[in-house]
């Protein structure tokens, strides 16, 4: 009867028997523990006795027991031919063994034995299946085939350990026990709760160093001793834990710092420094964030120390590819055949990473705060390290890394003013081993840049040569040496092959072209400046092309997160930006000075549709459509208002010109150019209204010298832009009125259409024959022949277009006038 349904009249004997049976069942169970405040002395004594009997197992023993339990479960499943369960247990077994490897513990012999037995069982099961007439079910067959592939892969992965185990199982087990002995010995000393660190995993045991009986023990019982004799063993433990899951990178760096303190020989210092710098770079594995500044400073200091050691002791050489050597033995020049100790590593990779992390930190720091300025001060230290690396590679005669480090040095100084370059070069005066080329030896910044670029021109790397000539052109343009920069750009032919270069080089090319356009503007070469800046502004993606921002257009597809991260990573630091507002002002002013006289010189609507600068014409049309125009507020509004007033000889000054170097001379040049173009526009606009016009009046109106006015008008007459003549005796310009007949006007239209047709036919023929000449076609004989034919055909087309355009240039052109006269003569003859 149930104890809950028992009534008062129930049989007492049955109740007693049931209570006795209940007491017998309760006896073997553990009594519920009392609260800590309700315990008596006897209770505490009984619990102490239980603690003595309790067995404490380490995490390693628990893992081994779990591996053995999984192996036994798998064996039982194999015996009953249950392959789905076998597959599941085998996957679990592989995970457990992988966990052993992650914490730097050796492979247990039990696993190798189980793996070999499993292979035999699989072969027997497959042979039995072929012989049997009745096949197994589909799920079991799929699991069997899957197990075959898994075991085959595992046998190949652990091939070395299996061969060692099969050769001598007893010796393999003794070696395994020997590796696990230090941990057991530590437990045998009675230590129950050691302090835990995580240099190779989350459960490594650390014992106080001030006691001689304790030592640092890593996973698998590998002791870490901070002595000169045990440096290489500890390095090996750290290397094995590098990159594994649950590895404490901070503790790894602290261990390597202690090893550097106890290092005695140069070989030991080099090995520890190589490992320490690598561990600092590995601390932050994220591609979006930058390396912590304190770690960067420590890594830079250690790279500098590494370069100093190998520079002073030429018997030690750090190379990326070396022959295999025993990393646990001390090496010296006396033990090497050629007295040179070659160590596997790469100094140039450290320098590249330092520079990249420095740039990445500037990209992620707010440029308008003091932190950005403080971070920018570290450039002097980095520049000194780069120069010391250059000096080391010069003495050791390593051309490839030398070219790479010179390119890094060049990228830090090519776009900076002379004062900043002098400040960077001043850090080399205290250096013990400066490079062969310095500002002190070159006397000027331009000669320093020239010497570095000439060295790169001789390098085998084409990418470095391309970037070197772009930086050289940029530097010449920055110093207003326009003609030298322009000639170098034309001789390089980079405009033909830059589309096939990498993104960083294309960005450098865009920056160079823009700087060249600004240089032309500062030098007063308005047409050249407008032509160079036209290609950049026509795309309406100026900031994106200059790597100064991510521009998202309205109808452009949304960028994926990966593409957006890549775009952000390409952005230049703020101190390297080119002022886009100043750039736009230079472009619009150049377009204004080119477009406004052109608009005044033509009178037909069809000719007005042909524009030189579409962005400027679009802004001008928008300004003309405005019903009410208020006072100008932005730079663009000032330029549009100046464009409207240019026909009346008025001009505006813009405040942004103060951002240019030598802005006083730039404003003086700009005022002169605007006055000259204002004179040209006035003559084009009002020539039909005058018979004669005084030169002195034009000189006073536009505040230009009489000689300059005479020169401008003479040039316009010579170029057939103005149908007039000069009367030197009276000091006037006499205008000739030529009324074009209907036939002459049609002749001009026909000439323009012929010119367009020739140009369109050439483009169609180029596309059909595929004769565009690039860098890749130059080595091909057929490509060279096609290129010559294309150039010849283009030359003919240019001559044709030149003649046609010469005939349609302005009023009274010889071509149109002559053709019109011939047609007029034919008409008069027919009339007679």
Automatic annotation (TrEMBL):
Its annotated function is as follows: Component of the eukaryotic translation initiation factor 3 (eIF-3) complex, which is involved in protein synthesis of a specialized repertoire of mRNAs and, together with other initiation factors, stimulates binding of mRNA and methionyl-tRNAi to the 40S ribosome. The eIF-3 complex specifically targets and initiates translation of a subset of mRNAs involved in cell proliferation.
- Compartments where located: Cytoplasm
Similarity remark? Belongs to the eIF-3 subunit C family.
> What spans are recorded as compositionally biased (Acidic residues)?
17-28
Q: Which InterPro entries match?
A: EIF3C, EIF3C_N_dom, EIF3CL_C, PCI_dom, WH_DNA-bd_sf
Annotated stretches, region: Disordered: 1-54, 188-213, 776-832
- Coiled-coil residue windows: 115-175
Main location per the UniProt record: cytoplasm
| Official protein name in the record | Eukaryotic translation initiation factor 3 subunit C
Q: Which GO terms describe its cellular component?
A: eukaryotic 43S preinitiation complex; eukaryotic 48S preinitiation complex; eukaryotic translation initiation factor 3 complex
Q: Which PANTHER family match?
A: EUKARYOTIC TRANSLATION INITATION FACTOR 3, SUBUNIT 8 EIF3S8 -RELATED, EUKARYOTIC TRANSLATION INITIATION FACTOR 3 SUBUNIT C-RELATED
Indicate the quaternary assembly. Component of the eukaryotic translation initiation factor 3 (eIF-3) complex.
- Which residue windows does the record flag with biased composition (Basic and acidic residues)? 777-801
Gene giving rise to this polypeptide: NIP1
Q: What are the record keywords, sorted?
A: Coiled coil, Cytoplasm, Initiation factor, Protein biosynthesis
Q: Name one GO molecular function term.
A: RNA binding
Q: Tell me, what's a Pfam family for it?
A: eIF-3c_N
Q: Which SMART domains match?
A: PINT (SM00088)
Q: Which GO terms describe its biological process?
A: formation of cytoplasmic translation initiation complex
Q: Which residues form the PCI domain?
A: 574-740
Q: Which HAMAP family does its entry note?
A: eIF3c
């Amino acid at each position: 009867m149930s104890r809950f349904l028992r009534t008062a009249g129930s049989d007492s004997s049955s109740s007693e028997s049931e209570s006795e049976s209940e007491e017998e069942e309760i006896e073997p169970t553990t009594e519920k523990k009392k609260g800590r405040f309700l315990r008596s002395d006897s209770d505490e004594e009984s619990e102490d006795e239980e603690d003595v009997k309790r067995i404490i197992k380490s995490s390693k023993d628990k893992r081994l027991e779990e591996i053995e339990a999984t192996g036994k479960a798998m064996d039982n499943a194999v015996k009953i031919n249950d392959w789905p369960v076998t597959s599941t247990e085998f996957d679990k077994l592989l995970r457990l063994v992988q966990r052993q490897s992650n914490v730097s513990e050796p492979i247990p012999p039990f696993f190798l034995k189980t793996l070999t037995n499993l292979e035999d069982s699989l072969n027997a099961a497959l042979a039995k299946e072929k012989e049997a007439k009745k096949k197994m079910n589909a799920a079991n067959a799929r699991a069997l085939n899957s197990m075959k592939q898994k075991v085959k892969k595992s046998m190949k992965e652990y091939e070395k350990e299996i061969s060692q185990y099969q050769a001598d199982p007893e010796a393999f087990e003794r070696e395994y026990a020997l590796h696990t002995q230090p941990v057991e010995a530590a437990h045998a000393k009675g230590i129950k709760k050691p302090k835990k660190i995580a240099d190779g995993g989350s459960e490594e045991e650390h014992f106080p160093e001030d006691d001689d009986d304790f030592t640092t023990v890593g996973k698998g019982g590998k002791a870490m001793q901070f002595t000169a004799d045990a440096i290489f063993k500890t390095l090996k433990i750290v290397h094995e834990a590098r990159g594994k899951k649950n590895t404490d990178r901070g503790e790894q760096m602290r261990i390597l710092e202690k090893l550097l303190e106890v290092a005695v020989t140069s070989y030991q210092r080099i090995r520890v420094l190589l490992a320490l710098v690598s561990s600092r770079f590995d601390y932050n594995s994220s591609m979006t964030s930058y390396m912590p500044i304190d770690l960067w400073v420590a890594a830079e200091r250690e790279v500098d120390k590494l370069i100093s050691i190998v520079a002073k002791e030429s018997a030690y050489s750090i190379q990326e590819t070396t022959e295999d050597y025993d990393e646990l033995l001390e090496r010296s020049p006396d033990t090497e055949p050629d007295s040179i100790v070659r160590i596997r590593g790469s100094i140039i990779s450290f320098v590249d990473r330092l520079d990249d992390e420095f740039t990445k930190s500037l990209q992620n720091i707010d440029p308008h705060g003091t932190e950005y300025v403080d971070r920018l001060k570290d450039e002097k230290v980095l520049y000194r390290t780069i120069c010391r690396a250059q000096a080391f590679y010069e003495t050791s005669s390593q051309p490839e890394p030398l070219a790479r480090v010179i390119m890094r040095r060049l990228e830090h100084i090519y776009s900076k003013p002379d004062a900043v370059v002098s400040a960077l070069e001043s850090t080399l005066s205290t250096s013990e081993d400066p490079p062969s080329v310095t500002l002190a030896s070159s006397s000027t910044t331009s000669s320093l840049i020239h010497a570095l670029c000439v060295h790169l021109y001789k390098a085998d790397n084409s990418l470095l040569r391309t970037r070197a000539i772009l930086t050289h052109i940029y530097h010449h343009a920055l110093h207003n040496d326009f003609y030298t920069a322009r000639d170098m750009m034309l001789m390089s032919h980079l405009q033909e092959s830059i589309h096939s270069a990498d993104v960083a080089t294309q960005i450098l090319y865009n920056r160079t072209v823009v700087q060249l356009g600004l240089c032309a503007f500062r030098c007063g070469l308005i047409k050249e400046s407008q032509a160079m800046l036209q290609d950049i502004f026509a795309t309406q993606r100026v900031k994106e092309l200059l790597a100064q921002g991510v521009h998202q257009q309205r109808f452009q597809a949304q960028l994926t997160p990966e593409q957006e991260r890549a775009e952000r990573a390409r952005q230049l630091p703020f101190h390297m930006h080119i002022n886009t507002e100043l750039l736009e002002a230079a472009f619009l002013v150049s377009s204004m000075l080119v477009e406004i006289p052109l608009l005044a010189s033509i009178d037909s609507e069809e000719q007005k549709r042909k524009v030189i600068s579409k962005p400027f014409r679009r802004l001008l049309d928008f300004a003309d459509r405005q019903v009410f125009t208020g006072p100008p507020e932005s730079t663009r509004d000032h330029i549009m208002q100046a464009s409207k007033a240019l026909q009346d000889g008025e001009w505006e000054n813009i405040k942004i010109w103060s951002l240019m170097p030598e802005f006083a001379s730039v404003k003086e040049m700009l005022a002169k150019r605007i006055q000259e173009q204002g004179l040209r526009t006035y003559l084009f606009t009002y020539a039909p209204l005058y018979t004669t016009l005084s030169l002195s009046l034009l000189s006073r109106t536009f505040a230009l010298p009489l000689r300059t006015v005479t020169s401008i008008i003479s040039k316009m007459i010579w170029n057939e832009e103005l149908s007039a003549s000069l009367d030197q005796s009276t000091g006037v310009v006499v205008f000739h009125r030529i009324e074009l007949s209907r036939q002459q006007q049609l002749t001009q239209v026909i000439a323009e259409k012929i010119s367009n047709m020739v140009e369109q036919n050439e483009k169609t023929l180029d596309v059909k024959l595929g004769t565009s000449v690039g860098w890749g076609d130059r080595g091909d004989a057929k490509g060279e022949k096609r290129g010559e034919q294309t150039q010849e055909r283009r030359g003919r087309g240019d001559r044709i277009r030149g003649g046609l355009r010469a005939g349609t240039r302005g009023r009274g052109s010889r071509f149109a006038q002559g053709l019109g006269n011939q047609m007029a003569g034919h008409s008069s003859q027919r009339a007679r």
